[in-house]
């Protein structure tokens, strides 16, 4: 796929199937690894599709997710120009101090301690799904409520508010689904809710992350401002709702769309960890990718990206790079090492990745044990992708057993 200077590719590139990679990715990696694209806002950006380029730009600490001069992702706002995005330090020492305060709660040791509770909740949700009868929507029955319960518990917010959280999260991740008035109203309500929650935690602290952050100090001896606390709570709620909930559904659809994959795991459950990593790498509907605004010239594999460029880093395409992954187009549940970029790279890599991994592994372990006859209730070609949001996923995952 070659591209003349005047041509623009509309981005995101439409998916051909709910869990299949668009053929344009491979063509771009081979022939046009830095492509001129038109975003949903109408603004222009540069799309990076090769592994080395994506990793290099994501890992560079000089570049941030947003800037006044950066291309707008969506005409109608969203997470990249929200209160949540603007309140937190985006780069440098302040950003790293904030990250260190949060990552204390997402260590592998803490996640291992959480696993029994996550497993018990997964068991209860499977019990309820079986009781309701087949066919069932695995996303609605398990994929959504499990990570929501976990993140609500971590933040000390009531799970009973989860429907409101889901709507607020969707408006923040808007590409084309919501109008500006809806987004503004939802964000204002989300900010007010979280501010009230933090005020209540200040009066009556619990044993949750936000209660601790209210009084915690960073390495410079400074506390988070109320605005930063609100943004942190909002960011973690959005991440806990959307990314892992969608990934549970996509992982199970990938494994069940080819029955030999599920049979391989039933025969050898020790493959759960590598299977989760491979599902993360193989995910073709990972969403928009990561934005970086380049404040300096950057040399990538096919030339120089000038300062002022808005780069869209497609981790999903990078994860299919044949120069990095053997048989990249195949799903290999034994693949190891598996240095995928699904959680990003460098100073902005996903803080919650140990939690996401724990949840995905537990879900897979519980379903293999409880429902070995699990299968899709519709052909894989009939699965419907989520549309209009910056995250990718499936609207539902119908299953039977």
From TrEMBL:
Q: Which UniProt keywords apply?
A: Heme, Iron, Metal-binding, Monooxygenase, Oxidoreductase
SUPFAM superfamilies according to UniProt: Cytochrome P450 (SSF48264)
- Which superkingdom does the taxonomy of this entry point to? Bacteria
- Protease found in the keyword field: no
GO MF annotations, alphabetized:
heme binding; iron ion binding; monooxygenase activity; oxidoreductase activity, acting on paired donors, with incorporation or reduction of molecular oxygen
Which family is it part of? Answer: Belongs to the cytochrome P450 family.
**What name has this protein been given in UniProt?**
Cytochrome P450
């Amino acid at each position: 796929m070659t591209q003349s200077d005047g041509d623009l590719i509309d981005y995101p590139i439409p998916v051909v199937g709910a869990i299949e990679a668009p053929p344009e990715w491979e063509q771009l990696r081979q022939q046009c690894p830095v492509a001129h694209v038109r975003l949903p806002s109408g603004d222009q950006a540069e799309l990076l599709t090769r592994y080395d380029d994506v990793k290099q730009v994501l890992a560079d600490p000089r570049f941030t997710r947003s800037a006044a001069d950066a291309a707008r992702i969506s005409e109608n706002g969203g997470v990249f120009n929200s209160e949540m995005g603007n309140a937190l330090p985006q780069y440098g020492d302040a950003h790293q101090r904030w990250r260190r305060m949060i990552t204390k709660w997402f260590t592998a040791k803490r996640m291992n301690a959480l696993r029994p509770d996550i497993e018990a909740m997964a068991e209860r949700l499977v019990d309820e799904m079986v009781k309701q009868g087949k066919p069932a929507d695995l996303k609605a029955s398990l994929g959504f409520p499990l990570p929501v319960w976990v993140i609500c518990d971590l933040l000390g917010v009531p799970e009973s508010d989860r429907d409101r959280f889901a709507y607020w999260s969707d408006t923040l991740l808007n590409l084309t689904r919501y109008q500006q008035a809806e987004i503004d109203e939802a964000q204002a309500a989300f900010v007010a809710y979280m501010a009230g929650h933090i005020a209540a935690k200040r009066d009556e602290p619990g044993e949750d992350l936000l209660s601790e952050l209210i009084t915690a100090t960073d390495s410079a001896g400074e506390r988070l401002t109320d605005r930063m606390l609100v943004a942190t709570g909002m960011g973690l709620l959005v991440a806990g709702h959307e990314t892992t909930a969608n990934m549970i559904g996509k992982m199970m659809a990938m494994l069940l769309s080819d029955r030999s994959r599920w049979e391989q795991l039933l025969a050898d459950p020790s493959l759960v960890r590598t299977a989760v990593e491979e599902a993360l790498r193989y995910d073709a509907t990972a969403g928009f990718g990561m934005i970086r605004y380049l404040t300096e010239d950057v040399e990538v594999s096919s030339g120089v990206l000038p300062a002022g460029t808005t780069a869209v880093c497609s981790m999903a395409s990078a994860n299919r790079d044949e120069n990095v992954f053997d048989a990249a187009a195949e799903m290999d549940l034994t693949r190891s090492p598996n240095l995928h970029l699904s959680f990003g790279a460098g100073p902005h890599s996903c803080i919650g990745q140990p939690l996401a991994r724990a949840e995905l592994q537990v879900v897979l372990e519980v379903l293999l044990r409880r429902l070995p006859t699990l299968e899709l209730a519709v052909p894989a070609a009939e699965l419907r992708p989520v549309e209009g949001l910056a995250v990718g996923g499936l609207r539902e995952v119908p299953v039977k057993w």
